[in-house]
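Record 1 of the preview.
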Amino acid sequence: MSREQQAVARARKAFETGRSRSLEYRILQLKNLQRLFLEKQKEISDASKKDLNKSEVGTQLFETLGLEGEISLVIQKLKEWAAPRPVEKNLLTLSDTVYIQPEPLGVVLIIGAWNYPWAVTIQPLIGAIAAGNAAVVKPSEVCVHTAKVMEDLLPLYIDK
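->
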């Protein structure tokens, strides 16, 4: 089995445990991801400098500040977004309680882009975590230093 197949199999196995269904677990994972950007800004900026010659300020402005804001918004709104929503009844459902209950679907593959390696890779990860899905993250092979930093740091902060 290839490395990629093993990663997908691990993600499926993790999803099947059901641990990502709880809102508290999702919020904890998002807070840990938020902590990564606060604590490891230097490593993130250094990798962006090596790969794309982006300055520290440029990396913050165009990559990480937006992600931090996105994570804060998702943490704030997640309970509301995940709550059941009532729907209109019809003749068949008149005596029933009917609602839409958002549910996680499974494993998500996230393929990063080279030009904004953090923003374009982590933003979908935020959504996948918020939705309760497991994710396999594949950073761009063009940004080798950034990919290595992601590979090293993500498992330290969020459930691998």
